[in-house]
Amino acid sequence: MMEVKLSFPGDNPPLAVIATAKLAGIPISADPSLASGSLPTFLISSSDNELKLRGTSLNTLLRYLGRVSSIPNLYGQDAFESCQIDEWLEYASTFSIGSEFENACSYVDGILLKRTFLVGYSLSIADIAIWSGLAGSGQRWESLRKSKKYQNLVRWFNSICAEYNTVLNEVTGTYVVKRGLGKPVPAKIKEKEQQGSNNGDAKEKGRANSKATAEVDLPDAEVGNVRLRFAPEPSGYLHIGHSKAALMNQYFAQRYQGQLIVRFDDTNPAKESNEFVENLLKDIETLGIKYDAVTYTSDYFPLLMEMAENLIRSGKAYVDDTPREQMQKERMDGIESKCRNNSPEKNMELWKEMIAGSERGLMCCLRGKLDMQDPNKSLRDPVYYRCNPLPHHRIGSKYKLYPTYDFACPFVDAKEGITHALRSSEYHDRNAQYHRIQEDMGVKKVHIYEFSRLNLVYTLLSKRKLLWFVQNGKVDGWDDPRFPTVQGIVRRGLKVDALIQFILEQGASKNLNLMEWDKLWTINKKIIDPVCPRHTAVIEEKRVLVTLADGPEKPFVRIIPRHKKYEGAGQKSTTYTKRIWIDYADAVSISENEEITLMDWGNAIIKEIRKDQDGIVTELMGVLHIEGSVKTTKLKLTWLPETSELVNLSLMEFDYLITKKKLDEGEDFLDALNPCTKREIAAVGDSNIRNLKRGEIVQLERKGYYRCDVPFIRPSKPVVLFAIPDGRQQK
Questions:
Q1: How far is CA 281 from its chain centroid?
Q2: Is residue 239 a contact partner of residue 485, using CB atoms and an 8 Å limit?
Q3: Between the CA of residue 621 and those of 545, 547, 549, what are the distances in Å?
Q4: Among 66, 296, 514, 531, who pairs with 125 as Cys (CB 3.0-4.6 Å)?
């Protein structure tokens, strides 16, 4: 039998370690006799062995408990979740920094807007670590807990308290003296959560919580009997509009403990490809969408053909060889086609010509016989099948004709047992058509639930228009940072959590709205700012050398934090030299004999300003005044040492692709193209930037947030950093 002894200082009990051990049922004997400031240790002994585990931080001990625990997924279900948990373990220490406590509460509150647990769909040591950080703060958290300031965080905290009440009461009662923690959940909160639970939206694991969506119910939905589908056409990459549809489907699937299918609506071989399928699946994974199966409309082609023939024989569909433009005009005017009353035998004859892809067949299409006088024009004999001799990306040249979305979707929805089809309100006029076609087919009716399409200012979401930019070289591909695709905005520096929070805040509302990008980038800033490392850059153009007369004759190096308020960001080396570089814009704002602050060094006094014949500042001369007060200086400047270790940078800034907030009805987007959507600024950065990895987000102090797109390769090739908007209005 293995015995575990936990030793720790009595004035600083490792609450997270003790709570984890008790929740996991791992018996430990507690020894609070270590000297103040000592690190906690595990002494693990058995009959023939004794091991000592001394954590360089609490996290070492937490990881050990997570690995040996019998609770499923306590340290994640796979390597990726374990890494996510590691990030949270590092972040948990932020709650012990008094000045950062509420910033940390705000950050975690934002993350929990859409989650029941911090990682995955069950309790993990990440939850226990953050819970302990809050519980261990005593009255400070209790005051916030009673307020309405961090509602998602309070909900999550109360949920854990309620679920593991006995164990956590014992831990807090023993180690958080007289702080009133682990109390039963207040009656009002508990009542509110139970009401939510009755609606199927409070206790399901993995459920996305949202004030906007929580008030909306699917019609006739039963918990455990809901089946939804997200059905993108593989003719482009997933964009922010599709993301809303995907996340709404996942939200309701989780809320009703139902199933979610990803179905590729691959009925148009002229536009579709395997590249798009692969990247759509990649984007769906990026969004964290959990689905039960992947299907393809093309899987149902034989059954769709059979259904089409049944409708022809029963007089509910006919083959029409009217030229397309004439057919469109007749539909608008409510004029019946000359082919509408052809016999089923004649229609079957022409249908076979369509199947063969003959010259005669290529002139025809199959139309439903609905109602040519209906005020809703979508019911005026819509097209069910069109000929297309192009090979299909999955099944090759087997077919010469393909079903339309209007025909295939209601059939496949019914066939796959979909209970509710979520569609954006732009399809509203086609809802009657959808149900009429299901009625003619004799299949089970599927409920339609509408939500508003997500529209953003200065943004095109039409895949046809986005394809034009790709094909005409106006962007570098579907993942271009100027594109509203998931890959594009993530490449620009948007965290997926920010996108999810933004979309879920819009909820399943049916109100049409035009959203500003600023709100999305503001959410993003709140997520990245507390954790992203800080670095320094100086603009290359006209950069100015400052000579400090009493500066160090021999350069020296100090190791300082990459983020002063977040230990998890690591450390960086800063070199201090007699001559330093500053931005030209800073140099021209300095007066002679002015005292300035050199960030991460101290004060200096500028004694002389040298200019060339054109009045351009070329050099500054000064002396250090380290003992000077930072509070008395107007200018706090970033700087770089004059060394050969500086890294060449290319700072990329991007603008919208069009110049109008919203295009008018019928307006050609080509008339609103923005002629200048990208700007490159040469700069130099501190030597630590050579260690950045692709995708890493940093803040260049006093310049903004950036995502590393091309990391350091060699000195002659610049590191490419993409500027990340921070939510402030662009000038």
A1: 15
A2: yes
A3: 9, 5, 7
A4: 66
Residue that has been written with the tokens 């109602």 in this structure = 371
The Cα 511–Cα 68 span in angstroms is: 51
CA atoms within 13 A on the CB side of 415: 18
**Angle subtended by helix axes 344-356 and 301-313, to nearest 10:** 150
Query: 286: how many CB neighbours lie within 10 A of its CB?
Result: 15
Q: 604 - beta bridge partners?
A: 596, 624
Total residue length of the chain: 731
Give the 3-state secondary structure of residue 189.
Answer: helix
- Cβ-based neighbour number of residue 43 at 10 Å: 17
- Give the H or E element holding residue 526: helix 517-528
Amino acid at residue number 114: K
Q: DSSP letters along 330-344, please?
A: HHHHTPPPTTTT--H
Q: Are 669 and 683 in contact (CB under 8 A)?
A: no
Pull the structure tokens for residue 603.
Answer: 């004060």
Could you give the 3-state DSSP secondary structure of residue 70? Answer: coil
Calpha distance 602→629 (Å, rounded): 8
Cα separation, 236 vs 44, whole angstroms? 56
83 pLDDT more than 60: yes
**Rounded Cα gap, residues 501 and 167, in angstroms:** 32
CB 449 within 8 A of CB 271: no
Question: What does 363-379 look like in DSSP terms, one character per residue?
Answer: G-EEEE---TT-SSGGG
Quote the CA–CA distance of 370 and 234 in Å, as a whole number: 29
At residue 186, the pLDDT reads 33
Instruction: Indicate the burial class of 47 (C-beta count within 10 angstroms; 0-12, 13-18, 19 or more).
Output: exposed
Write the CB contacts of 573 (distance below 8 Å, at least 6 apart in sequence): 557, 558, 559, 560, 687, 688
Report yes or no: 473 and 445 within 8 Å, Cβ to Cβ.
Answer: no
Q: Which amino acid is at 8?
A: F
> How far apart are alpha carbons 698 and 636 in whole angstroms?
20
Sign of the torsion angle spanned by Cα atoms 4, 7, 11, 12: negative
The residues facing 293 across adjacent strands are 261
Rounded CA gap, 238 and 463, in Å?
A: 9
Query: With left for phi above 0 and alpha for psi between -120 and 50, is residue 654 left, alpha or beta?
Result: beta
In this prediction, residues 26-47 reach a mean pLDDT of 75
C-beta of residue 445 within 8 angstroms of C-beta of residue 418: no
Q: Kindly state the greatest CA–CA separation across the chain.
A: 101
Quick one: which H or E segment has residue 60?
Answer: helix 58-68
Q: What is the DSSP letter of 289?
A: -
Q: How many CA atoms lie within 13 A of 141 on its CB side?
A: 25
Cβ proximity of 712 and 692 under 8 Å: yes
- The three-state secondary structure class of 653 is strand
Is residue 343 within 8 Å of residue 318, measured between CB atoms? no
Spatial CB neighbours of 41, under 8 Å, sequence gap ≥ 6? 6, 7, 8, 34, 52, 53, 54, 55
pTM of this structure? 0.70
Give the Cα separation of 539 and 622 in Å (integer).
21
Least confident of 65-69, 260-264, 358-362, 611-615: 65-69
pLDDT of 178 strictly over 50: no
Of the listed ranges 208-222, 366-380, 395-409, the one predicted with least confidence: 208-222
Classify the phi-psi angles of 603: left when phi > 0, otherwise alpha if psi is within -120 to 50, otherwise beta: beta
